[in-house]
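QA checklist item 7 of 12: single-chain prediction sanity check.
[x] sequence parsed
[x] length recorded as 234
[x] structure emitted
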Amino acid sequence: MKIIAIIPARGGSKSIKLKNIAKLNGRPLLSYTSEAAKKSNFISEIFLSTDNKTIANLAKKEGLSFLGYRPKNLSKDNTKTIDVVINLLKKIEKVRNYKPDIIVLLQPTSPLRSNKDIDNAIKLFIKSNATSLVSTVNLPHNFNPESIMRLKNNKLYGLKKSLKNHVTIRQQKEKYLARNGAAIYISSYDSILKNKSFYGEKTIPYFMSKINSIDIDDQEDLIIAESIIKNQNF
């Protein structure tokens, strides 16, 4: 069974310049995901997709496979990651002359996702005979739909109900899951090509810890992640 990893890392970013290689505890963000993928016991090859020369050069130094820059039309703010993946899969088939059985998508913005997370997710995916897997966390109670409010004419309203009917006791709120970035997506080759999505007919969750699920979106997230690294011996 051929299992590959794809790391998408374009150069554009509005929140942090060149976010995918921003320094985290002295190391480029991309390096954390690269290291975790290389330590996996199941991934046979790691491919990088980027439109940026600096990112491409770093990836090559780290031993990642790079088959050329992605097209400009797949390097925009509104580009869907699945389109980037499908484009790269077609390139792999043409250049490497094979079709992988399983694709693991690992985004650089999840630096604390470990190789154990990756391997446990792959094992769960194979064991469950699923078409796809998404890493998740339990949704914090303060983000629960029961707690969310909207502001209209300087007045607060409940999202689902009126405020006076809000459920305020967290134990009584309905439980929800949320993608943690997502740090890990796994799908079969056939499901990706059929559904044009990392969500197939049977999508299962892989639960990750809150700490390992940190998702880098802005400078505050970098500060939080660096604090975790320094205090948790990552």
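[x] summary fact logged: The longest helix spans residues 81-95.
[ ] second reviewer sign-off
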